[in-house]
Amino acid sequence: MRRIVGWVLLVAVGIAGALWLVRSGVLDSDGTADSTTAASTPLRTAEVIRTDLIVTEDIEGTLGFVAGDPVVNRLVGTVTALPDEGATYGFGDVLYRIDASPAVIAEGSIPMYRPLSSRSADGPDVAQLEAMLVAGGYDPDGDIEIDEDFTSATRNAVKNWQDALGLDDTGVVELGRIVFLPAPIRVVEVRPVVGSVIRDGEIVVTTSSPRTKVTARLGTADQGLLGEGDAVVVELPDGTDVPATVTSVGTVAQRSPDGSSYLEVEIELDDPAMGEGFDEAPVTVTFETERAEDVLAVPVTALVALAEGGYAVEVAGPDGRTRLVAVETGTFADGLVEVTGDLEPGTTVVVP
User: Fold this and answer.
1) Tell me, what's the pLDDT at 21?
2) For 285-312, what is each residue's pLDDT tens digit?
3) How confident is the model at residue 41 (pLDDT cuts 50, 70, 90)?
4) Is 1 inside any structural domain?
5) Which of 120, 162, 196, 324 could cross-link with 167 by S-S, CB 3.0 to 4.6 Å?
6) Are 299 and 279 found together in one domain?
């Protein structure tokens, strides 16, 4: 599907207008021609239809895994276990082990930057810890109130969590024992090797989104045509059309090498399985820019440009004689144009 560009319409209408001038009549005040002609040759015709007209636009995109932030180690010791490249890890999973002790993934937007214990000052990182403990079932009696205060209930739940992991139940979460991440990750590259000594601040793995996404560039001139939650269609490299949904639209314009500016758009396939096997694959994203529902429409080529301005269509009668009917045009899409005038569905119009 493609947007109908203006010059196509002008050429089509211009040709139709020229043909009309050859066999023209003059419009009466009611918009119909007062003279009729008998066709000497069979006319090409089409019917006026009632339909929905949808205008679409295409932008190019790439289907693949979106790069994420690397995971930085905060423990010190010998690497004894590492994750698998290409595997996905979520909340509660052990990502790697140092000196045989686990570094565990938990949900949170604030990286761990200090040990957490009853001596810790209040803070949002404490709330992240408490949310992890409650979600994991380590507060069976429901004593924890998820806030920024490390209480005795928090300490007891930490001990339960440490017991489950095979750690000493000190009630103190050492720096680096938890890897807070905003979302599950896919491991792209593992940096250290098992047996190596790792230090605080070293990158353990580079990451990406766990599922493929489409990233596309929306020209700044089209800003506002797409928004979060909008439905689109993604054409995969094999020609398959897949429903998808816009998940984000950038708010800061970026500049491409050719000097044009754009907003980055992220899109997720409604069925993620359809994206399996594709990475850095070129795709086409189609989205609606205009819709006219339940309107009368004729082929664009049926329009006749009138010398005095405006448009008409040439209606063919059952006896082969024709007359002009003035129309007003609306939405153009897929070779059709919305028309209003003295027309009914099923009316036969000449298509030059």
Assistant:
1) 38
2) 999 999 999 999 999 999 999 999 999 9
3) low
4) no
5) 162
6) no
Strands (E), 5-127: 37-38, 45-47, 49-67, 71-72, 77-81, 88-89, 94-98, 101-107
Domain finish residue from 287, 305, 329? 287
Range of the domain at 125: 74-201
pLDDT, average across residues 104-126: 97
For 132, what's the count of Cα atoms within 13 Å in the CB-facing half-sphere?
Answer: 28
Contact 126, 139 (CB under 8 A): no
Q: Say whether both 188 and 236 belong to one domain.
A: no
State whether 187 and 231 are in the same domain.
no
Do 91 and 179 belong together in one domain?
A: yes
Q: What is the DSSP string of 55-68?
A: EEEEEEEEEEEEE-
Assess contact for 129 and 178: CB atoms under 8 A: yes
Token pair recorded at residue 34: 């007062």
Q: How many domains does the chain have?
A: 3
The C-alpha atoms of residue 255 and residue 219 are separated, in whole angstroms, by 10
Domain boundary among 201, 224, 253: 201
Buried b (16+ CB within 10 A) or exposed e, 303-330: bbbbeeeebbbbbbeeeeebbbbbbebe
Q: What are phi and psi of 187, to 5 degrees?
A: -80, 120
d(CA 217, CA 196): 42
Does the residue 43 lie in any domain? Answer: yes
- Number of neighbouring beta carbons within 10 Å of residue 97: 17
Strands 77-81 and 94-98: antiparallel
**Domain shared by 276 and 319, yes or no:** no
State how far the Cα of 352 lies from the Cα of 337, in Å rounded to an integer: 15
Please indicate, yes or no, whether residues 86 and 194 belong to a single structural domain of this protein.
yes
Return all residues near 37 (Cβ < 8 A) that are at least 6 apart: 23, 25, 321, 322
Residues 142 and 180 grouped into a single domain: yes
pTM above 0.85, yes or no: no
Angle of helix 152-165 versus helix 124-135 axis, rounded to 10: 50
| Domain co-membership, 101 together with 49 | no
